[in-house]
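As noted in the main text, all predictions were made from sequence alone. Below is one such record, for Zinc finger HIT domain-containing protein 3.
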Amino acid sequence: MRSVMQLCGVCSEHVPKYRCPACRIRYCSVSCFKRHKDDDACHPVKESDPASSSSTPVSNAEKPWDVEDRLDEDSQTDKVPLEKLQQLADSEALKGLLRNPHLRRLMMSVDTAEDKAKATKDAMQEPLFVEFADQCLKIIEPTEAEDDDEF
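Prediction:
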């Protein structure tokens, strides 16, 4: 049983589902993520682990996830259900966006970047990338108004 319910680090209204890859603040939605980035409130954390102060730096991609990366060990809030993944794969809107070579280049640059947090932050400055992220979130986390439209 939890003694304290965590709230979004941006709006302080909802339970956070995501964590900023750069500064690790927890947020609840794309709009809070955008607000967080637009307000220049994102200050990337520099991990200072005495054990890793050797001459060979370890990239974020190679670091194992720790307990803090999971919001709740018993919940599925940070996992996308297989049904939603299938909806992403079947989305004509996403397929249309992915036909754009500029978006594909942006995604490749994020995927191959050594500093994925910075690459993601940079990509989020591109309206096309934001549109893609928004479209994905509409499928994964439809709002109540969008749910009502389906019936």
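The first strand starts at residue 18 and ends at 19. Residues 82-140 form one domain. These features were considered when defining construct boundaries for the mutagenesis experiments described in Section 2.9.
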